[in-house]
Amino acid sequence: MYTIDFIETENLEGIIPFLELLNPKIGKVTLKERLNEMIAQNYQCIGVYDGGKLIGISGIWVLTKYYIGKHIEPDNVCILPEYQGKGIGKKLSDWIFKYAESIGCEAAELNCYLGNVEGHKFWEKQGYEKVAYHFQKNIN
Prior knowledge:
The protein is α+β, with helices and mostly antiparallel strands. It has four helices and five strands; from the N terminus they run βααβββαβα. Strands 1-2-3-4-5 form a five-stranded mixed sheet.
């Protein structure tokens, strides 16, 4: 049986191995520094557990924007490869959506890399629609 709950701030460093899976070109030190900055900006993270073992994560942001209102944004969703294909991602997505409803969110939105075709299929099955491109420009 899998359980899903918030990861306490003092335990968030435990998500670094998941972030390394998602971002293999970013070093562990940089990931830790960025995580600490994100925590200071109200970042929260949900964990999926198999017993006491952390097997999946999703960061979440709760934001308000003109075009969508108060919404939740799942971020850096990752399920360990050996647990994929077992419906865990759907359970996590459902949990996040129910939490969003409970705090008065009007919607949910997320970013998914262009090349992540399987991710696109997953999110569309969860009811998300592609509505825009996310543009990025590096300053340095």
